[in-house]
Predict the 3D structure of the following.
Amino acid sequence: MKTLVSMQDLSCLGKCSLTVIHPTVSAMGVPCAVLPTALLSTHTAFPGPVVRDLSDFARPALDHWQSIGAEFGGILTGYLATPDQAELALELYDRFGDGLIVHDPAMGDHGRLYSGMGPEMVAAHRRLCERADLILPNLTEGAWLSGVPYEDRTDLDFCRRIATELLKNVKAVLLTGYAPTPDTVGFYYSDGRTEFAHAAPRYPRSCHGTGDLFAAVTTGAILRGLTVPEAARLAAEFVHRSIANTGKDSRFGVAFEGELGWLAEKCRMLNA
Ligand code: PXL
């Protein structure tokens, strides 16, 4: 099994990005290397995290990997600490992007960008989306990236409108947050030739960090040989099960740990 490399921040408390991606992908039987782009004391849903930009570390780390002949079967990029870090991601794609490239333009939710982000961040993520084989925006991110004005709606028409606009510049879109009715949630996929929509009963709570879990399982499952819709269905089920385990204060992250055994078993069965 080839190694996936995930380039994200390392948020020390609060379970998001690398601290959920590495264990989840590893449980799927996919070796996972990490390129930390920034160190944060918590994710940014808590006020006042201590932040250290690690770009000065990441660039020489890429040189070192190249000097030892490192190769990767896939790349998963996501949250950028600064818009400049798009350059770092592009360098990772240029040097190690022979396999699958997945980008999760993690920059907002519920119609708004995360704290401290602005139009430069949208432009930075747009550059990465244009290079990736698959992108995983939620509806907020899809609207910001595509220029389709955000509306508080989650129906198929809105998903199609955002995806159609994005597909003018990207290869394939897996939009999260498609919800044909208030008590369901799922995803919409299109690569311009085929489309697929899936919705299942929604757990009546939204949790911080679920986008990173969804990205981890989808990417790991594609590397394990599933199609994108199959991979996304597995990811949606894993996220649903994890939310069901999570207590009221989800700022400290989704309780996914107890579901890793279930996920590992599902992946073992793929080879049976
Ligand atoms: O889950 C996306 C994410 C990743 N990294 C950091 C974040 C967030 C979302 O808020 O703050 C630092």
